[in-house]
Amino acid sequence: MTITIKYFGLLTEATQCHEESINFSGVLVSELLENLFSKYPALKHKNFQVAQNQVLVPVNTKLSGNEIALLPPYAGG
């Protein structure tokens, strides 16, 4: 399946991109993250949350959509 991955904030520095599409055959979000960690080792040491189709999900969630966003911590005011 083709998945679009969007990176925000400091995560764009770790990946050197804002968005990419990849072909991925895994089942879980955690498997996708392991794939990304091997591609972008600096990403493994960053703190972020995962959103699937604009909904925050835990990493043991089954992939069910075609859009994943990696969101760093944010502060509001």
From TrEMBL:
CDD domains: Ubl_MoaD (cd00754). This is MoaD/ThiS family protein. InterPro entries: Beta-grasp_dom_sf, Mopterin_synth/thiamin_S_b, ThiS/MoaD-like.
